[in-house]
Amino acid sequence: MDNKVYVFEGKTSTEAIEKGLNELKVSKSKVDIKILESEDKRSFFSILTPRVVKVEMRLKEIGEEPKQEVKEPKAENKKVVRSENVDNTEAINSAKKFLDEFIKKLPSKELSYDITEDGNVIKVDINGEDTGYLIGYRGEVLNSIQTVLSNVASKSSKEKARVIVNIGGFREKREKDLQNLAVKIAGTVIKTKKSITLEPMSAYERKIIHTKLQENDKVKTFSIGEEPYRKVVVSLK
Fold this sequence. Notes:
Blueprint: E1 5-10, H1 13-24, E2 31-36, E3 53-59, H2 89-104, E4 112-118, E5 121-127, H3 132-135, H4 140-154, E6 162-167, H5 170-192, E7 196-197, H6 203-213, E8 219-224, E9 231-236
Parallel strand pairs: 5-6
Antiparallel strand pairs: 1-3, 2-3, 4-5, 7-9, 8-9
């Protein structure tokens, strides 16, 4: 068996892994995967520059026990039990302090933000011109900002703070795009009578697809794979 180590690159770890599996023509269970982390990734502000993720792959020996895959941190997918009527005052103050310093370092001018509470959720809306680089490819940078801000806010709270960050209405636009995609995919499945598997999505995005197609009596949806590579499958009922 080939013990050679292969390295593949992508904008995200998912893209790099998919590229590697396609080139090696193997399934994920046949390789050991290690996500390589560069030094500049440790700096938060490095998320504002184009990101290249490298993954290392090694073909497994026949009968070899699978090694635990090294994955990137996934703060959003953790289930957190929160008590009712949580006082978010300190968490919000920490978020404001961080955002004030963060915005000063950005090249965009006249950026502003609003923080509101929706139950136990802290919502942060950032607005201004030329904010595309703060959103990134399909919201990758936006989600990184959300993760960092959640960690900052949580340090000042007795419980983990749930923070949702939106920039220039991206969340609403992305939701509409996914709903339109769901309808289009359902139409293709009905026409061809063949199931379609979508690209890996976050739990939040998968839920949008599932919810939209619940109203369709001709197709059904379910998810396959493991986080963070779970995919939605659309098939005939």
